[in-house]
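Hi R.,

Here's the chain you asked about this morning:
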Amino acid sequence: MVSSDRLLAFAALSFVLIIVPGPSVLFVIGRALAQGRRAALTTVLGNTVGAYLLVVAVALGLGAVVERSVVVFTVLKLVGAAYLVYLGVRAIRQRHALRDGFAEGAAGAGTLRTLWEGFAVGVANPKTVVFFAAVLPQFVDREAGHVTLQMLLLGLVFSAIALVSDSAWGLVASGARVWFGRSPRRLSLVGGTGGVAMIGLGVTVAATGRAQ
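And here is the predicted structure, written out as tokens:
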């Protein structure tokens, strides 16, 4: 299995990469501001599960296909980008409804729906596939055998760090939402701002990153 040295080195690298806000963090923050703490944490869970599914795909050899195919990479990238834009447009259209949701205890969207949206964003992120495909093999000890299990274990380490880090971002952002909730106008503003941020994120994802 993975040696302790390799495991710690991978954990350190993962921490450095995760701690810097990226697409997943921005999406979680948008959800926290728009729907509150519960939605943010549910989104984090869904996103983590989606990302780990990518780890499974890479461990089974599917990540190499995405890494080497411009067509597959582009399709996944555009699907993920389009979904983010869709969520952003919906958030803007429903921004005034946030006031009622906040007054009712921030019920927001259903848990399963929120979980699914986080999962869809996590699993449709081609950059994550490329990262896992490029990094995971470097920390696997092939002479020790059980290569697939080693990759799955490393993926769990990455997911655990991401779960803690993204949850922290979500909690901080949801705390700021309380301040916005003191004014109906502020709450409508944050709903629209979160939507714009998601649209911008979708455009960014679509415009950057290419398979090599």
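One quick note: The radius of gyration is 18 Å.

Cheers,
M.
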